[in-house]
Specification:
Keywords: Hydrolase, Metal-binding, Metalloprotease, Protease, Zinc. This protein is an alpha/beta fold and about 150 residues long. The protein is built from 3 helices and 7 strands, in the order βαββαβαβββ. Bound molecules: zinc ion (ZN).
């Protein structure tokens, strides 16, 4: 069964807004949440600014990302909040690139755990989500994408 990456409606709105604001450049950051039987469920997303981002390139600042992650996980009382993976935008209607797939695989191997990647691609009808999961054996699985409560899977 294909697993699904789900986002809350609020997270989806936050990501689209961040993507639109950064145009014509890419932007991206971290996804936080928890895993369910159907796949990763994202309850928080954070922008990790990349001042050198271009229309075709976004690189996550590892130190800044680590700082945000630690602060958020420390502040969480639910104990349910964990690192899910990464997101970034493509100001073109193109999902994850070969480079994106390889980078996710490398992160999963280095971390010793699954990493989800969400790419927001911009088309004529606005942003759409494309998700994948990489595991520590560098196996890549395409995930369905769904926004909670809207029945919107695109
Ligand atoms: Zn990309």
């Amino acid at each position: 069964m294909t697993r699904t990456l789900t986002l809350t409606d609020t997270v989806w709105r936050t990501l689209r807004l961040a993507g639109t604001r950064a145009l014509p450049r890419e932007t991206g950051g971290l996804l936080l949440g928890y895993y369910t039987e159907i796949g990763p469920h994202v309850t928080e997303a954070h922008v990790v600014p990349d001042p050198r981002a271009t229309r075709i390139r976004y690189r996550r600042d590892v130190v800044a990302a680590e700082r945000i992650l630690r602060a958020r996980i420390r502040a969480d009382d639910s104990d349910a909040l964990g690192y899910i993976g990464e997101w970034h935008t493509h100001p073109l209607p193109i999902g994850p690139s070969t480079t994106d797939v390889h980078a996710s695989g490398r992160l999963a191997v280095a971390g010793g755990h699954d990493i989800a990647l969400l790419v927001l691609a911009l088309g004529t009808r606005g942003w759409s989500g494309h998700a994948l999961n990489a595991d520590p054996t560098e196996s890549i699985e395409t995930l369905k994408f769904s926004v909670e409560g809207t029945g919107n899977d695109g």
